Amino acid sequence: MKKILSLGIVLLLMTVIVSCGVTETPETVTLDPITLATTTSTENSGLLEEILPHFEEMYSTQVKVVAVGTGQAMEMGKNGDADVLLVHAEPTEIQFVKDGHGVDRHRVMYNDFVIVGPEDDPAGLKEAAGSDAALALKTVQSMKVPFSSRGDNSGTHMKELELWQAAGVEPDGDWYKSVGKGMGSTLTFASEEKTYVMTDRATYLSMKDNLDLVILVEGDERMFNQYGVIKVNPEKHEGINKEGADRFVDWILSDEVQDMIAQFGKDKYGQSLFVPNGE
């Protein structure tokens, strides 16, 4: 009787252990390489270098990063040359999905844009404009002081054009320098040429030790900078890595990676370069 009772207890314990999942092994998934088309700020800031190894190790895969302006990244998506996009031009992203080029769109993180320039501030933007970005640009135009623009149809360039429109002025003339390059190269150009320029805060902070530029205008709610992730529509193009894109989106929105984003930059700059708001 005691043996039967003991056997019953053992079987009961085994049932409890199995039901609690103790004996389950985690799913092992290996993915084919994926192509991520993204804005230059995610690469220039060092964020991707910080977080992507986590994804690559988890799925024994490789992420091919193509860092270009948001406009170019979305063209890659339209042409089927990328599996997933990480970009920052919300109205354009929403239209991209509406037009059937993308499947879903999720917010991932945000930061903000700032206007930087020479420390001596020849146009007096810090005093004249305060946090008003449109007023700052109007002041630049009225004084014809040099201003550098990315000029590359990136998310930053799109936002800059919105602010010129809000200022009611057309940026045109020798004082307006259209660089046609990414954020890092444009900041370097502005520093060397002693011009004003609009930049995302993350790229500026990651480069500021090598720049002769300081933040002069910040805090305008119109300079909010939201980043989104979009899967390219696999029904539009053959060869899209659908599983890889699905896994990447789930990964970047996970609590673990959102926390990695929140921590990025704190140790070096005393603040996060991006604020997670994945949904």
For the biggest sheet, the summary is: 10 strands, mixed
Number of helical stretches of at least 4 residues = 13
Give the assembly state of these chains.
Answer: single chain
Estimated radius of gyration: 24 Å
CATH-defined superfamily of the largest domain = Periplasmic binding protein-like II
Q: What best-fitting shape do the alpha-carbon axes yield? A: globular
CATH class of the largest domain: Alpha Beta
Segments where pLDDT lies below 50 for 5+ residues?
1-26
The number of E-state strands comes to: 10
What fraction strand?
15-25%
Q: Helical amount among residues, as a percent range? A: 40-55%
Structural class: alpha/beta
Number of domains: 2
**Would you identify the CATH architecture of the largest domain?**
3-Layer(aba) Sandwich
How would you characterize the overall build of this protein?
The protein has 279 residues and is an alpha/beta fold. It has two domains: 34-111 and 226-276, 3-Layer(aba) Sandwich (D-Maltodextrin-Binding Protein, domain 2); 112-223, 3-Layer(aba) Sandwich (D-Maltodextrin-Binding Protein, domain 2). The protein is built from 13 helices and ten strands. Strands 1, 2, 3, 4, 5, 6, 7, 8, 9 and 10 form a ten-stranded mixed beta sheet that branches. Helix 8 links the parallel strand 5 and strand 6 (176-178). The longest helix is centred in the N-terminal third of the chain and has 18 residues, at 2-19. The protein is globular, with a radius of gyration of 24 Å. It starts with a helix and ends with a strand. The model is unreliable at 1-26 (pLDDT under 50).
